[in-house]
Amino acid sequence: MQKLLVRLRRYSRCAMATEDVQRNSKHQPSKSLDSMLTGQVYVEELPADIEPIRKLLEKYSGVRSKDIDEHIHQIRDRLWDIYPYVCIGHFRFLSLKFTLDPRYQIALNRLLAPKSEATFLDVGCCVGQVLRQLVFDGVDPSRLYGTDLEPRFLDAGFDLFKDRDKFKGTLVAGDMLKEGDGDGDERLKQLDGKMSIIHATSFFHLFTWDDQVRAARRLVRFLKPDDPDIMIFGRQVGTTMPGAGQGQRGNKRFLHNATSWQELWDEVGKLTGTAWRTEVNEIYEFGVNPDANPEGHLRRIRFGVFRA
């Protein structure tokens, strides 16, 4: 009970601090304190689908089963202090549902193939849960890469998975959308031309069309130019009515159906001298926020992008 009270007090401070920061930063969520306190952003109860991450933390990280819940809460509150994303408040950063995507199995099989030299990049990797699952599944971590805008998320991942001294993957903090006199964020250049497979979940739906094009062009630069079996895959919020709109945080974004997703990659192809074929599959998943989906047109979709 004492630990619960500490977390509740901590949460209340986080909520109020978030409202203060909103006045000073365009990056902060536009949620009111009242909506936070009704549990729409920050929830205390662990999600029902927590068992896969429990197994990973117990078998890969060596966290004792009786300590896992408290360990998760401590890391979540640390992440929340860094940035109060809804996915942090709702523990969605712990989801391992990406393993249910058939394209994940394709990626895994390719990475595990004898004498494989395939490489894997997770974009917007947060705490690196995808990369740790791949290591647990037997992939050589020296061929695994992750990037996120927030370096403190990457650092927290080491503490979540207790592998600071054993995880040999490459983690790079960088801004996928940065533009300037050069070729964007210099920190990301070390990844250029090295990747066979890129994973990007809950990433593109954060941005406008123009920023999605910018991010996709950056992904193309990460890819091995002579690899015919390139694959980019992930999941995101989609819609039956593609177009520009406003996200729950008030940010402008563009949501896709299958047709508009192909059109985006057609534009990327013209700008990069490449050609792309896309796949989109709608997936049913309980929990699309009805308040954010009043007309029922939002969907969760999985996608794949391949050389044409």
Mean pLDDT: 86
Q: Please trace the helix and strand order, writing H or E for each element.
A: HHHHHHEHEHEEHEEEHEE
- Any low-confidence stretches, pLDDT <50, length ≥5? 1-39
Provide the β-strand percentage band.
15-25%
Radius of gyration: 19 Å
Structure classification: alpha/beta
Strand order of the largest sheet: 3-2-1-4-5-9-8
> What is the overall shape?
globular
| Helix count, DSSP H or I runs of 4 or more residues | 10
| Largest sheet composition | 7 strands, mixed
What gap, in angstroms, lies between the N and C termini? 57 Å
Helix content percent band: 25-40%
- How many β-strand stretches? 9
Describe this structure in words.
37% of the residues lie in helices and 17% in strands. It has 308 residues and is α/β, with parallel strands linked by helices. A seven-stranded mixed β-sheet has the order 3-2-1-4-5-9-8, with helices on both faces. It has a two-stranded antiparallel ribbon with strand order 6-7. β4 (197-199), α9 and β5 form a beta-alpha-beta unit.
Key terms:
17% strand; alpha/beta; single chain; 308 residues; two-stranded antiparallel ribbon; disordered N terminus; 9 strands; 7-stranded mixed β-sheet
Question: What does this entry show, briefly?
Answer:
This protein has 308 residues and is α/β, with parallel strands linked by helices. Helices cover 37% and strands 17% of the residues.
Layout of strands and helices, then pairs:
Elements: H1 2-22, H2 33-37, H3 51-59, H4 68-82, H5 86-89, H6 102-112, E1 120-123, H7 129-136, E2 144-148, H8 151-161, E3 170-173, E4 197-199, H9 209-222, E5 231-239, E6 243-246, E7 252-255, H10 258-272, E8 276-283, E9 298-307
Parallel strand pairs: 1-2, 1-4, 2-3, 4-5
Antiparallel strand pairs: 5-9, 6-7, 8-9
